[in-house]
Amino acid sequence: MSKLLKIAEGMEKFFGRGKFETLKFAEDTCLFIGSFGNVAVVETDDGLVLFDLALRLFGPLIFKRVRDFSDKPVKYIIYSHGHFDHCLGYSYFIEEVKEKGWEMPQVIAHENLVRRFEKYTMLDKHQAWTYRQQFASVGVGASNNESIHKRLDPTIVVRNNESYEFQLGNVKFEIYHDKGETDGMLWMFVPDKKVLFTGDLFVSSYPNVGSPFRVQRYAKQWALANEKMMKKNPEYLVPGHGPLLEGKENIKELLSITAESMHFVHDEVVKRLNEGKWFEEIYFEMLDIFPEKFKKHGYLRPLYGDYRFAIHDVYRLYHGWYDSGNPTDLFPSKSDEIAKEFLKIADEGNFLERAKQLVEEGKIQLALHILDVIIKANNSANPEVLLNALKLKSKILKQKAKEEPSFIAMNIYNTNVLQIKTRIKELRKSLK
């Protein structure tokens, strides 16, 4: 299977997308291209405006879809934010500009996107490592193919909380800044066409607040952004991920309940911080009080973002890294040394048998914790017991991945299964 097909297959599990569907809308003057990061086109008499560009790997497909729609030159490119799946599929458009002698398009982005690109350049190896941890199971990784070292930098930079407007072919474009998934988000509204382009400020699932491998996100500001967008009364909404949305009342309801869900997680975490509670207590209380209207809403499913992630994100915005209240955790010993001490007290076989019992009782998360005593102790454990512990952990993770609605969490489980598989092979070799 080619890399592109493997990624597309994995994307099918994420909002059912990956086939690069195209839809004309707003009297056929706009084009929606559904992909891992959606791309949208607005056609005017004087040229095209592109909102986001998807992954570099998808550049040829995006270019073909755009050119099937219109042969007019691209005049503006807007980056909703600086994540790879929204801003790297530009090369075919730039090659076309050079071949035809057209004027280079203006590229609009927020000043914090420029800083993000600089950070990605500084942390390129770390960034690649995190992508392998999160998405290896569906073939997505920040390889040289997605490197930020090759990029199309903005020519128009929106600063602070300023808005920006321009006109092309008698069509007015309004661009606004709000914090959300990043601190450099832009969203766009086209009044004449009643079309709202949200980027990842709306993603057709629970907002991606608190992604496990990513830096701080902003639930409260994200909620306020959804409320600001709602006031534009759009008839069409192009999300960062997920299907094109239509209908004023439908869009209003979706933006409203998404904002409400983020206000909820922010305000309830803050309330408990003010009550002097530590993270574990806050986390499990928050799981218990999550309203049914959010759980059951079709557009708040934890397909990418997840309420459980959001609890972490709001907490870390306001609290330091010491989150347990237990001084033992202040300067902890190495986890493998702790595991070895446990094995001095009880035989590793006892841990394995207890893990099996917990699995039979349906307590598979607890079973993982018990298995990790054997696995982390590594050379201190009997190799045969360690092998069986790894096999059981792999089985549990596969089960959790099948049951997990979150695309991110599912991939983390499946990626670790791949890593365990490699370790099992190495251990079997050593046992021969």
Description:
With 432 residues, the protein is α/β, with parallel strands linked by helices. The protein folds into two domains: 3-260, Metallo-beta-lactamase domain (Metallo-beta-lactamase, Chain A), CATH 3.60.15; 333-431, no CATH class. 48% of the residues lie in helices and 14% in strands. It has helices at 3-12, 59-69, 84-87, 91-100, 111-122, 124-135, 219-230, 248-274, 279-289, 292-295, 307-318, 335-345, 348-360, 364-377, 383-403, 407-431, and strands at 22-25, 30-33, 39-44, 47-51, 74-78, 106-110, 156-158, 164-168, 171-178, 185-190, 195-199, 236-239, 245-246. The strands form two sheets. A seven-stranded mixed β-sheet has the order 1-2-3-4-5-6-7. Strand 2 and strand 3 form a beta hairpin. Helix 12 crosses helix 14 and helix 15 packs antiparallel against helix 16 (407-431). The chain is globular and about 75 Å long. Residues 1-8 and 13-17 have low confidence and may be disordered.
